Amino acid sequence: MEIGSFQGRSTVMPATVASHCGLRPIVAIDPHNSPILLDHHANPEASSYQAFLDSIHAAGVSSNVESHLAYSTDVASSWNRPIRLLWIDGDHSYEGAKKDLDGFFPHLVSLGVAAFHDALNAFPGPIRVFVEDVLRADRFGPAGFVHSIAWAQFRPGDGHAFREWRSSLAGRASRLIPFVENGNELRGMAKKRYKLSRFRVPHSAIDPGKWASLVDSR
C-alpha cells in the first residue's frame, strides 16, 4: 500500500515488481490535490491525478495498480485487507503521518514492513512518528534508514529481541525532532546543527542481500 502517489513515479517500481512476481496490485491512495505540490492559486481545480494515470500507463503497469482518489483516512475507515508493505509518503505533518500509520497499521501482517519517506528531511511528521510509534515499540524488530527512507519490520512475536538495536537508533534520530516539530523552515545555525545531527544517524544505502539477511521473510 502506497499512501501519497502524486504523479505516480514512486508507484511504478512496486507495481512493476508486483507484475513480475505475480503479486496482487499495489494500492495507491492520494486525493491528488496537494496544496504544496500544486498551484491552486492559478488553478483552483489543479490535480495530479491525470499525471498519475499517465505515468502508470506509460510504464505498462495500470493493471497492477488499484487507485483510490481519496484521503487515506477515508479509505482506512472501511479497509479490511492484509498489508505486507505500508509505504507512507502522504501528509508530512505530525498529525497526517500519525493518521496514516494508525489507520492502516492494524492490517499490517506479521513480518510485514512499514516505511516512511522523507524521515530524514526537514518535515515534522515522518521522523517523529517513526521514532515514537515504531522505534520505541517492541512490536517492531529490525529497523533502519536508507537515505531519507525509514523502515521497520513488524515482529509482534519477537520484537523485544531488537530493543537495544531500535533504542540506539531512536536515540540518534530523536535529536532531529526538536528542529522540525514546529514545521518552520530551518535557517542559519539551526540548519547546520540539524544537518550535523542527521549525519550522525546511520542512513547509507544497504546491499539488498544484507537487507534480506536482517529481516525474517518466513
Give a topology summary.
Blueprint: E1 2-3, H1 9-21, E2 26-29, H2 49-58, E3 65-68, H3 72-76, E4 83-88, H4 94-104, E5 108-116, H5 124-135, E6 140-146, E7 149-154, H6 163-173, H7 177-180, H8 188-199, H9 208-214
Parallel strand pairs: 1-2, 1-4, 2-3, 4-5
Antiparallel strand pairs: 5-7, 6-7
Helix pairs in contact: 4-5, 5-6
Walk me through this protein's architecture:
By secondary structure, the chain is α/β, with parallel strands linked by helices. The chain has a single domain (2-214), classed as Rossmann fold (3-Layer(aba) Sandwich), CATH 3.40.50.150. 39% of the residues lie in helices and 17% in strands. It has 9 helices and 7 strands, in the order βαβαβαβαβαββαααα. A 7-stranded mixed beta sheet has the order 3-2-1-4-5-7-6. Helix 5 (124-135) runs antiparallel to helix 6. The mean pLDDT is 95.
Biggest beta sheet attributes: 7 strands, mixed
Tell me the radius of gyration.
18 Å
Strand order of the largest sheet: 3-2-1-4-5-7-6
- Oligomer classification: single chain
What do we call the CATH topology? Rossmann fold
CATH class: Alpha Beta
| Average pLDDT rating | 95
What is the domain total for the residues?
Answer: 1
CATH architecture verdict = 3-Layer(aba) Sandwich
The number of strands is 7
Measure the end-to-end span: 20 Å
Count of helices?
Answer: 9
Which outline best applies?
globular
Q: Secondary-structure element order, as H and E? A: EHEHEHEHEHEEHHHH
* Helical content class: 25-40%
| Poorly predicted segments | none
